[in-house]
Amino acid sequence: MRRLLAYLRPHKLAAGFSLVIVLVLIALELYRPLIIGDAIDTYINAYYKPYAVVEKEDAEVIFHGIPLAKNYDARRAKEFYQIYLWDNTYYLFHYEDAKLVKELNHASDAVVEGRTVKVTIDGQTYTGEKMSKADIRKLRIHDLQGVKEASLWYLIVLIAYLICDALSIWVLQKMGQDIVYEMRNEVFGHVLTLDTKFFNQEPVGKLVTRVTNDTEAINELFSTVLVKLFRNVVKIIGFAVVMLSINVKMTGLAFMMLPIVGALTFFFRYMSRKAYRMVRVALTDLNTFLSENLSGMRLIQIFTREKEKYNEFQDKNKTLFKAYFREQMTFAIFRPSIYALSIVALIIIMGFGGKYTLEGSLTVGTLYIFINYIRRFFEPIQELAEQFGTLQSSLASAEKIFAILDEKATIVNGEEALEPERLKGEITFDHVWFAYEEEDYVLKDISFTIKPGERVAFVGATGAGKSSILNLIGRYYDIQKGSILVDGKDIKEYSTNALRGNIGQVQQDVFIFTGDIQSNITLNNPSITWEQMVEAARYVNADGFIQKLPQAYEEPVSERGATFSAGQRQLLSFARTLAYNPSILVLDEATANIDTETESLITEALKRLMEGRTTIMVAHRLSTIQHADKIMVMDKGKIMESGTHQELLAQKGIYYKLYELQLASIEQ
Fold this sequence. Notes:
Elements: H1 2-5, H2 12-44, E1 51-53, E2 61-63, E3 66-69, E4 80-86, E5 89-95, H3 100-105, E6 110-113, E7 116-121, E8 124-130, H4 133-139, H5 141-193, H6 196-201, H7 204-246, H8 248-254, H9 258-295, H10 297-302, H11 306-359, H12 364-405, E9 427-435, E10 441-450, E11 455-460, H13 466-473, E12 481-486, E13 489-490, H14 496-501, E14 503-506, E15 515-516, H15 517-522, H16 530-539, H17 543-547, E16 556-557, H18 566-579, E17 584-588, H19 596-610, E18 614-618, E19 630-635, E20 638-643, H20 645-651, H21 654-667
Parallel strand pairs: 11-18, 11-19, 14-17, 17-18
Antiparallel strand pairs: 1-3, 1-4, 2-3, 4-5, 5-8, 6-7, 7-8, 9-10, 9-12, 12-13, 15-16, 19-20
């Protein structure tokens, strides 16, 4: 959590502003019922308050020529008028005894006779006249005005609440999206710095989940959960303080259900945490499965494994379904339980509150406030428990994201890394030992020197270590023993960007990005001009098929270049490498997927490309490397033979046997 909160530092003004708005929102929410409750007690239900006959200059209302006022000095008043409600009808009493104010208000024994009502108090009968609607409006004009003012004030408070709520949502959503935007950039930027070994071990679907789903969970944390946690805690405290300040006895009744609510909340937090973790694990597993199998769909169809893969997907989908269902069932039990408890609390408030109101120890307005508050009081408790679950989900996602960010690149630059614009291309392996895992060495005491501009080929059986040599030249892995020199300096002294920028590598498995032809050749490098791109394509004879496309170099390319043949994809990779004009050229089975006709098209281009460049080739087809200046034959991680094509044939060793085997297979 501390690490997550560090992302708030650049947004502390927005976070502080949103907290201030939250406090204002809570104050407005607490104040709204008070407006109505006060209006009920002061105006709507204040008909029973007597009017005193006063001097004309002190009158609040003139009723049939009589000056009256509610706000009066009881010691000076000698004559009173009071409204009495009986059987949904208002009657007006006139008396001179101030002691009758409370007695008349609580009188429950009355007899209606025509337009009058007679009430007996302490053995004496008082008569009231039925009031017309016009008389009621005239006598209660100030009450009507007060209700209008209270309604207007309530409307103002409500509008202010809506504005503040909208502003709060906008500020929080923007802050959350800004933080997630920065975090996504940070995660993907960090992933770009990690070693090849990391990508060999981590499934693509898992990384996609980290950058998309998990960062979105962080967005929910910053834009919703944290502020709502603060808001609900303050709201609960605010409700409790206001209710206690109004009536302690009623507050005690309202809080009778809190122990049960607390126990339910604790149980819900435990169950929701488990449910959220199950969902995150199942979602990651499903995304990983989808990413892998959609990429390998052609292979699935070749071996007709659609049904089996569908069954596998169904199992993983069912696991995710069960995880989501468990999560929803947890909420389905918790929410109604809290709601039921809030209804029980409401019944208690209404029962006891009604009794106290009839007894005169509680006003109707206060009862309304408590009924309103008790309905709202349980909402933040319910949300608080649910948000703790969401918080757990966000923290689980954060743990996974931080696990990626904590991955350290083993291939790092020194403090004063060299950044030459162009290397000469001399490469020296000096007693190099290398293993991918611990001491399971795939290269054993390898030593050789390749001079600038020299063309060298590595041949040998699968697993002999040929491709490992290519990976080490680009420093995609670090060796365990020995040293690798480029232009007389250890490759660890160069920055990886400068080193790899001087190496153009063409692989057997060509990766084509979604976009267009131009972006796949230039990789959106602005330093490569249109003319340079077209010239590179012409060099490798890729221009021929490109110009036949409807939009030529701006032709849209689907994922992995699925609409192109293997040969066309390989030609694009040659053009891409050429466009970057490397000083060292690495060809890893570059012509393995090229048909004979296409191979003949690029042979001359490759000869021109190799001129002035150090070229390292790995090939199984010996016919493609016969022109090399030197051929090194590898077996079980060691260089067994070295020489030109003719020299190696004359030795009649491993190379000679390989050549004979391939020659025999061609003749057959």
